[in-house]
Q: What sequence folds into this?
C-alpha cells in the first residue's frame, strides 16, 4: 500500500517541440515502466498512442501513466504543446499537484510555454524546470534561465550547472550533492558515473552554490544562520528547504539535460520526488476537504468514449472507492454506480480493486458525468470548483458523405463535445446544417480523422469560417411592455433598460438601479435571464453578444397578471429593440502569431504579414534566427501553414494562439457582413 506522502501527481508541460514527449518516454524507461524507448519521429512513443499523434509527431490528447521511482509512485500526465489543444492542458493542470516545465535550451521561453506557465499559475501549481536540448547547436541554457526571470517573473534556482555544451555536453555538476554526474554515450540506462569534482570546476561550483544558498537564506532563518556563520549545510537539509520553498512557490528549481541522449533523466526523476509536493502537501480543497478525510470526493477531468461506454478520468481528493460502490454526482444531484476502476498506462488499463485519496484513475459507470463534475459519497454537498475552457474561434460545416452514415453521425455528435469541451456543435435552423467550432484548423482536422478512423465514417468538412462576436458602440435606453389579456389570468411585464458598451474582454454585466417597489425583487432574476438568452444571438448577423452592460432602471407590474415569464419576455423585447439603435458591430478573433525564421527570409515574411493586416509586436534576432511576434486577424491566417512553407522553403517555424476579440474596420465590417449573408 503506497502512503499518501509517497505519491506525486505531476504534469509535463511545454511549448511544442521542446522535447516533452521524448523526456516523458525516458522517464518511463528509467523507472522500468517500459523496456524499450519509443520516439516521436518513429511514431512509437508510449504516451502518443493515437494514430493522429503518431502521424503528426505531436501530442494531441493528455495521457496518464503510473510509474515508480525510489519508493515513490509518480502519476504522470503528458499534455499537448500545440495551442489548438490547450483545453487538454487546462483540464490536466486542474487536478495535478505539481508540474515539470520543459524548455528548449535553444529557443528558451516561447509563446506557448508562457501560456501553459500561466495556466499552472492559475491553479497555484509548484513547478520544477528542466532545460532540455543542451546537446543542440545554439544551446544557451543561461539565456533560458534569464528569460524565465524576465518573461515569467519567477525566481529560477539552478541546482546544477552543465559541463560542456552542444556536442560536448555529457555531464552536470549537482550543486546540492557536490558531485559530478557523467553519462556514457552508450544507449544504456546503467551507463553513468558519479565523480568527485575536479579543480577546474571549483570556481563555477562555488559561484552557483553561493547563489543557491543566498536565495534560500532570504526565505529560511535556520539556513541563513548557518550560511552567515560559514557552517556546513548537508544535502538532506538543503533538499528539505528547497522542497519547502518550491511547494510555497517562492522558487523554481532548475535542472539540465539532453533527453534524446538520455542525459539528465535520473536527476529529473530525483527532482520530482525530492521537490514536488505529495497530495498531503497541498492546500485543503475548497478550504474544507483534506486527503485524510474518510468522505469520498473526486473531480471528473476528462471523458473518453469507446466501444464499452464512457470512461471517466477522476482525481480523488479524499476517501476510497471500490467497484460496485454507489456514488453521488453533486453537480447533477443524481446517484451513479462505479462498475470498474483502472490505473491507466497511456492507452492500456490495469484493473484495480480500490482507489483512494491522491489517486488519478479512470472508471466506468458514471453515465451522467461531465467534465468538471464532482463525484462524491452519498449525501455529500460540497461542489468542487469546475473547469473553465477557452471559447472556440473557428467554425466549419460538417456532414457525413453518405446517407447510411447519417444515423451513426447523429448518434456520435453529443459524444464529441463530451470528450472535448473546447468543441462546440450546433445546428443552423434555417439551413439544417451542422456547424462545428474549435480552437484552430488542426483541431478540426484531427477530429475528422478520428471520426473516420475510429467509427468508419466518411466526413465532409466545409471551409473554415471565423467565429465572430457582436457588440455595441452606443448607450441606449428602451422601455417595453409585454401584455396579454385573455379574460382570465393574463401576462403583464414592463421594464426600462439602459444598454451600454463595455471595454473589450469585460463580457456581460447586469445591475439594478430601479426605484423601490416598481418591480418586485422576485422578478429581477427573470429579467436578467431574458437578457442573457437574447445575448446568444445578435441582431446583426446572429453571433453571440459580448462586452455589454445592462442596467434595470424602471418598470411596473400587475398584482395578478405579472409573472416571471412575462418579465423575461418583456426584458428580451426591450433588449433586442435597444440593440438596433446601439450601433451594433462585429468583433473578430485576433491571433498572436510567432514566427521563427532565418535572416535571409525575414523581409519576405514581414511583407507577407503586413499584407495580412498583421501588426508587429516585437522583433528579436541574431545572426542565426529572428523571432517575430505579430497580432493578426484570424480570417487572414487561413492556410498560413502552407504559405509560410512556400515563402521560406520550409525553413520557418510558426505558432499561433488566440489573443482577444477586436473590432473590424468599417470597410472590413461591410465585406464580412456581405460574406456572412451570402452576397
A:
Amino acid at each position: 500500500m503506497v502512503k499518501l506522502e509517497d505519491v506525486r501527481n505531476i504534469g509535463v508541460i511545454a511549448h511544442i517541440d521542446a522535447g516533452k514527449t521524448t523526456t516523458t518516454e525516458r522517464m518511463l524507461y528509467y523507472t522500468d515502466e517500459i523496456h524499450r524507448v519509443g520516439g516521436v519521429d518513429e511514431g512509437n512513443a508510449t504516451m502518443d498512442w493515437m494514430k493522429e499523434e503518431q502521424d503528426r509527431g505531436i501530442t494531441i490528447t493528455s495521457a496518464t501513466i503510473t510509474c515508480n521511482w525510489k519508493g515513490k509512485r509518480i502519476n504522470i500526465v503528458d499534455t499537448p504543446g500545440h495551442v489548438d489543444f490547450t483545453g487538454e492542458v487546462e483540464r490536466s493542470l486542474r487536478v495535478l499537484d505539481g508540474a515539470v516545465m520543459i524548455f528548449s535550451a535553444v529557443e528558451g521561453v516561447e509563446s506557448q510555454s508562457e501560456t501553459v506557465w500561466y495556466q499552472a499559475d492559475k491553479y497555484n501549481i509548484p513547478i520544477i524546470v528542466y532545460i532540455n536540448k543542451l546537446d543542440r547547436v545554439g544551446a544557451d541554457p543561461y539565456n533560458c534561465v534569464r528569460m524565465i526571470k524576465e518573461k515569467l517573473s519567477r525566481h529560477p534556482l539552478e541546482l546544477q550547472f552543465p559541463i560542456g555544451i552542444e556536442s560536448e555536453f555529457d555531464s552536470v555538476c549537482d550543486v546540492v550533492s557536490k558531485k559530478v554526474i557523467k553519462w556514457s554515450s552508450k544507449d544504456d540506462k546503467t551507463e553513468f558515473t558519479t565523480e568527485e569534482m575536479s579543480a577546474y570546476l571549483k570556481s563555477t561550483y562555488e559561484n552557483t552554490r553561493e547563489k543557491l544558498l543566498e536565495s534560500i537564506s532570504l526565505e529560511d532563518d535556520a539556513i541563513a544562520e548557518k550560511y552567515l556563520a560559514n557552517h556546513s549545510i548537508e544535502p538532506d537539509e538543503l533538499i528539505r528547504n528547497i522542497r519547502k520553498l518550491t511547494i510555497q512557490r517562492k522558487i523554481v528549481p532548475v535542472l539540465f539535460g539532453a533527453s534524446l541522449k538520455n542525459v539528465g533523466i535520473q536527476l529529473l526523476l530525483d527532482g520530482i520526488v525530492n521537490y514536488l509536493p505529495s497530495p498531503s502537501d497541498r492546500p485543503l480543497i475548497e478550504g474544507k476537504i483534506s486527503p485524510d478525510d474518510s468522505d469520498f470526493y473526486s473531480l471528473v477531468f476528462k471523458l473518453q468514449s469507446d466501444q464499452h461506454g464512457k470512461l471517466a478520468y477522476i482525481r480523488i481528493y479524499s476517501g476510497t472507492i471500490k467497484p460496485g460502490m454507489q456514488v453521488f454526482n453533486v453537480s447533477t444531484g443524481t446517484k451513479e454506480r462505479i462498475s470498474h476502476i483502472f490505473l491507466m498506462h497511456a492507452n492500456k488499463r490495469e484493473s484495480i480493486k480500490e482507489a483512494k485519496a491522491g489517486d488519478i484513475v479512470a472508471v466506468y459507470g458514471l453515465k451522467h458525468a461531465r467534465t468538471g463534475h464532482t463525484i462524491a459519497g452519498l449525501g455529500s454537498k460540497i461542489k468542487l470548483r469546475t473547469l473553465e475552457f477557452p471559447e472556440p474561434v473557428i467554425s466549419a460545416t460538417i456532414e457525413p458523405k453518405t446517407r447510411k452514415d447519417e444515423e451513426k453521425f447523429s448518434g456520435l455528435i453529443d459524444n464529441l463535445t463530451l470528450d472535448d469541451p473546447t468543441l462546440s456543435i450546433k445546428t443552423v435552423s434555417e439551413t439544417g446544417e451542422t456547424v462545428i467550432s474549435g480552437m484552430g484548423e488542426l483541431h478540426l482536422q484531427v477530429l475528422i480523422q478520428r471520426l473516420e478512423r475510429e467509427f468508419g465514417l466518411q466526413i465532409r468538412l466545409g471551409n473554415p469560417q471565423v467565429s465572430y462576436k457582436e457588440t455595441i458602440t452606443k448607450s441606449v435606453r428602451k422601455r417595453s411592455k409585454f401584455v396579454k389579456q385573455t379574460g382570465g389570468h393574463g401576462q403583464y411585464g414592463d421594464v426600462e433598460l439602459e444598454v451600454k458598451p463595455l471595454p473589450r474582454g469585460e463580457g456581460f454585466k447586469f445591475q439594478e438601479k430601479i426605484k423601490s417597489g416598481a418591480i418586485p425583487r422576485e422578478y429581477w432574476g427573470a429579467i436578467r435571464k431574458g437578457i442573457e438568452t437574447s445575448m446568444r444571438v445578435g441582431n446583426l448577423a446572429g453571433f453571440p453578444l459580448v462586452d455589454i452592460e445592462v442596467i434595470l432602471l424602471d418598470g411596473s407590474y400587475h398584482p395578478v397578471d405579472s409573472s416571471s415569464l412575462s418579465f423575461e419576455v418583456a426584458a428580451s423585447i426591450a433588449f433586442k429593440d435597444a440593440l438596433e439603435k446601439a450601433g451594433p458591430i462585429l468583433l473578430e478573433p485576433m491571433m498572436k502569431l510567432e514566427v521563427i525564421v532565418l535572416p535571409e527570409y525575414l523581409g519576405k515574411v514581414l511583407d507577407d504579414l503586413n499584407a495580412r493586416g498583421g501588426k508587429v509586436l516585437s522583433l528579436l534576432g541574431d545572426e542565426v534566427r529572428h523571432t517575430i511576434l505579430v497580432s493578426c486577424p484570424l480570417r487572414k491566417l487561413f492556410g498560413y501553414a502552407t504559405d509560410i512553407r512556400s515563402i521560406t522553403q520550409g525553413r520557418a517555424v510558426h505558432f499561433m494562439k488566440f489573443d482577444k476579440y477586436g473590432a473590424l474596420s468599417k470597410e472590413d465590417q461591410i465585406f464580412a457582413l456581405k460574406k456572412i449573408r451570402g452576397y
In short: The chain has five domains: 4-281, 297-376, 394-467, 470-583, 590-677. Confidence is low (pLDDT under 50) at residues 40-45, 47-60.
